[in-house]
Amino acid sequence: MTFFTKNRKKLCYWGKILCNNIKEFNSSKVMAKSKYEYVRTFEMEDKCLQNCWIVVRLDGRSFHRFTSSHKFEKPNDKRALELMNRSAVAVMEELQDVSLAYGQSDEYSFVLRKDTNMYNRRQSKIMSAINSIFSASYVHYWSSYFKNIKLLYPPSFDARTVLYPSDQNLRDYLSWRQADTHINNLYNTAFWGLVLMKGLSNNEAEKILCGTVSSEKNEILFKECGTNYNNELPIYRKGTVLVRKLIRIPSSKSKKHVVCPLHVDIIGDDFWKEHDEILNLEKIKFNKDFNPEDNFYIVRNS
Fold first, then answer.
1. 245-265, pLDDT tens digit by residue?
2. Name one GO molecular function term (predicted).
């Protein structure tokens, strides 16, 4: 008598149990669905094109009213800029594929690695995640920077996503944003200098600055307000670029993943040569020249 004949009854028994389990599994899958599930077919496919840099830019919504309501200092409020920076760092702590961020005034741009597969490259998921983390962090850290000013109402930011296919496209985008920082800040510094230091009305200051070029605004600032624009803080003139680095803190034996805020020129080649790991999609670079007195944020989610 063969082994199969001896154990035929047992095999039949276990075969029936297996069939019953399969039937139950299939029926449970059917039962888990509902007749309303068809609405998922209305969702649009919004995956970002492969091999492109993904840039999400946030802009403060109705921030003129927000800054007036909370009495921001003019022409620049350093507390507000540092709060924007801290909120952007929170995004980089949470989303490791954000390799660089650039901010000025009430806007911030987040650059995701061109090879990222975060959220399966779904534009709406990426944009909404960055916006929500940033906005929530802005409210969360408000009291750390505006200690004696109560937040009267929550701020809001709009967002857009743009794809840049080449490294040069990305560099040109960031150059555009930094050039915009210089243009806007020079005008605002001259405008508020005439208003606050010379006592002119807003309309009078606007008429004086209307049609002037950068050199003329610099001259107005120097002659009328005694201000050398080149002596203004770099954070005002150049904005803030956030980069990831590995550093060794004197009190720690291990290397730490940090985000460093820099107020430097990003239009020329020097920045991109020093931080070549960004465009080369390499791992975070160790900063052997780190100064313990430099400002940095330790990434605790790394």
1. 999 887 777 888 999 999 999
2. tRNA guanylyltransferase activity
